[in-house]
Amino acid sequence: MSCKQPHVLSIQSHVVSGYVGNKSATFPLQLLGFDVDTINSVQLSNHTGYKVFKGQVLNDQDLICDPVLGDNGHMYVPEELKNIYKNDILPLADIITPNQFELELLTGLTIKTMSELKEAIKVLHSKGPKIVAVSSTDIENKLTSVTSVSKDNTMIKIEVPRIPAIYTGSGDLFAALLLAHTYLEDDIKISLEKTINTLFEVLEKTYHHSLTIKEANAQQAKKIELRLIQSKKNIENPNILLRAVNF
Known about the structure:
The chain has helices at about 20-30, 80-90, 100-105, 115-125, 170-185, 190-210, 220-225, 230-235, and strands spanning about 5-15, 35-45, 55, 70, 75, 95, 130-140, 140-150, 155-160, 245. By secondary structure, the protein is an alpha+beta fold. It has one domain: UDP-N-acetylmuramoyl-L-alanine:D-glutamate ligase, CATH 3.40.1190.20. Strands 6-7-8-9-10 form a 5-stranded mixed sheet, sandwiched between helices. Strands 1-2-3 form a 3-stranded mixed sheet, with helices on one face. Strands 4-5 form a two-stranded antiparallel sheet. β7 (about 130-140) and β8 (about 140-150) form a beta hairpin. It is globular, with a radius of gyration of 17 Å.
């Protein structure tokens, strides 16, 4: 474990209400002992899953890179930026945390099997990143998180039970937790286990809370805002029930 005081510059979206982007990452990082400085790539009233949202977006004079490419089949950034991520940003990164859709965008590969996932990860390693952590994959009817370390050719995975909802901000939380735990731990297996178990506990707590909301006019997006503050103890000391295995 490193003794140096960790300090993070987090460049992500910001919402006034709710938990995505910097709002999803800052609190967990601070709980785990990190000083966090933030630059907000956008500032919105709430995330775009709501019926109404308003706010501002930084232009290319202020920022040229938001770390989130897209999810669930559509891009969050203009199509013309894809090659900048592939050719300019990837070689600069030590750790990258794509979801399955982003992994396909960055490699140009279609991923339907675990062997195709392995090949795509190798492509990303060849472009520079030492650690590739695929936050979530839905392959062969299993929800799985996979992390690979190029230095010693380690590749591990954790299968995650499904929770019947789609959460906004969970990928941002995954990236923040993995960053923290790869810094604090010497073992990538422990880092991934702490990351996934924390994330699963937060999502499970959020899901069960959503079932208690009975207001007829409550938006689904509001019901499933991440219960981060209520998960303080889980973030600081997660229960390790889901285990990583080599593959």
